[in-house]
Amino acid sequence: MMLLFCGAFVSGLGALPANAEIYLAAGDRISLKVIGLPELESEILVSTDGTIRLPIIGQVNVEDRSILDLQEEIAAGLSRAPFQIESDTGTQWIQVDATKVFVSVAEYRPIYVTGDVENVGPLAFRPGTSVRQALASAGGMTVLLPDNTASEFGRALSDHMLVSARLEHARGDVKRLKLELSAQEAIAPATSESSNQEALTPDEVEWLTTRSKLRDLEATATDLSLEKMEERLQILGQLEAVNTEVLQTYEDEFARVSELAERGVATANAAAEAERGMLSFSSRVLEISGASHRLKVDMSQLAAKSQVELSETRLEILAQLMNEIDRVQDLEAQLAVLSSRLAYLDPSKALKTQSDSLIYIYRRNSGEIDRMDAGFDTELLPGDVVEFHSVSLPN
Q1: Widest CA span of the chain, in angstroms?
Q2: 76: three-class secondary structure by DSSP
């Protein structure tokens, strides 16, 4: 007889709801960005009382709310009152545009794994994390083998479950990286009606939409900087034109006074004064021209830098994607070998525990803790506690 991991000894549990919506709570970290107002950009940790404090708005209740609901309140609150900023021209009061306010989750509160696993403790959460992926991150289950005759099968089964969990995690990484490429290339999210693309979960659609908005936010910030630089370039052009006209006047005056001085009509001091004015405005024109040239170079470098950063990011994602695809193929080969090994050792037991097992999830709900049973493919929510147990199975 050997011991394999199964659910705990609790009965009468409710089924875990599918595709449960993610709600915010203490421990989440909220990101705030406003296009054109870097002064308002911040990351705020939700306090233990379920609130955050923001400029202009003040304290906002976050507990048990969705990120979209929170964005609507923050955007409305920021747009209600003018915001004071300091610029080169002094203090200014501006009105925040609600459509330029973006609120997202920078980091969710962790999930916790306990029971018969190799590594008990917290794990970082990301939308779409399943029980299988949490088990892989925790190092797999602990298998007790009191019977030496079953040890080889037990080791193979443990390895199979661990590799299976790692494969699920790797496939999730591949899907995430493909989504990241879609966000970089502004490809429309796949839907359940798409025949050539895998349907996305609501969380993945929301994540892709948020990433696309952040990409647009970065592009808009660059465009705003270029617009301001273009306005300054136009002002410099106007200054250069005005000073060039004045310079021409001084040059004409210098030529006239020099001619009069040669004929003895004008004094040498008058000629020297005209020459000083001409040289002064000539220096100004050169300075303005140099400033315009430097500004044009800065604009070109800023535009080029933005394109280079996009290309480098895409290349980095592609490299990661290729590595994860190779990893998936390697894990699939390992899994096939282990499945064959299990079938050879004991075909009647191979993979049986995966369909018969129960896992417990403890989840906070309206101030209380619900205890639910789940399977390997059940998706987790932030703050969930996943509990694995070992029970005896007959030979």
Answers
A1: 126
A2: helix
Q: For 325-341, what is each residue's pLDDT tens digit?
A: 999 999 998 888 888 77
* CA separation for the pair 166, 179 (Å, rounded): 20
For the chain, list the strands marked E by DSSP: 2-6, 14-15, 29-34, 42-45, 51-54, 58-61, 83-87, 90-94, 101-107, 111-115, 121-123, 359-365, 368-374, 385-393
List C-alpha distances in Å: 8 to 12, 160, 364: 12, 22, 19
The CA distance from 366 to 138, in Å, is: 28
44 φ/ψ angles, rounded to the nearest 5 degrees: -125, 130
Q: In whole angstroms, give the CA distance from residue 387 to residue 147.
A: 25
Rounded distance between C-alpha atoms, residue 155 and residue 163, angstroms: 12
**CB contact at 8 A, 96 and 41:** no
- The pTM score is 0.48
CB 391 within 8 A of CB 10: no
Rounded mean pLDDT of 91-96?
Answer: 78
Instruction: Compute the half-sphere exposure of residue 179: CA atoms within 13 Å on the CB side of its CA.
Output: 24
User: Could you tell me the CA-to-CA distances from 38 to 29, 148, 159, 251, 323 in Å, in that order?
Assistant: 18, 65, 50, 48, 36
Residue with tokens 């996943």: 386
Half-sphere exposure of 324 (CA within 13 A, CB side): 19
